[in-house]
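Schema walk-through. Below, the input block comes first and the output block second. Nothing else is stored per chain. Lengths vary across the set, and this one has 216 residues.
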Amino acid sequence: MACAVGLGVARALAAAHEAGVLHRDVKSTNVGITRQDSVVLHDFGPARLAGESAITRTGVTMGTPQFMAPEVIMGAAPGPTADLYGLGVCLHFMLTGDLPFGPAAEVGAVVDSALGAGIRPLSTGLFPFTPVNLALLVDRLCAREASARPRTAAEAVLEWRAGRRRAPALVVRRGRVEVRIPADGAVDAEELRRIVAALGEDDGRTREPEGDDGTA
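--- output ---
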């Protein structure tokens, strides 16, 4: 699910950036899923054209601190990579269940963490069930330095697609039922319901991910 949501938001940002529009407030509450399982990016209220002066009072920064790129916190003009940082924080939150800098409402504490140690990489084993390809991409999106992130949303989309093609399947067995789950978790709603129903039939065991040729 995280992969599908991330890809959907990345596509929305790619379209916006292609039109020269920055969102400036990408966060979890601005991402929705329709009944048709389409991913929607909401609230372009703070959005502005790339290179355009922000329509705010002097000294006021637009955005939500938990999801705000470090360079924007320090006063730099936001660019496409700042929107991608917000996407990375959304996915980090979705995969771990916790905001990267904790539930603290104190803006100062969030800013200190963002500009200090930054977001803890998923690839360090923070959430071991996260597929490696997805963890590495989220880590890039959450990089403290803008230059370490994908340069554009379109580039992030390409990385997502490449990661999904390389990901091996996770084979799960319950009794006589065998289910193959893509390692990136990219399954639609109907397939997810089928998997849950199948795995609820009997106790079983989970095997290691298999390669493309079916070997462990």
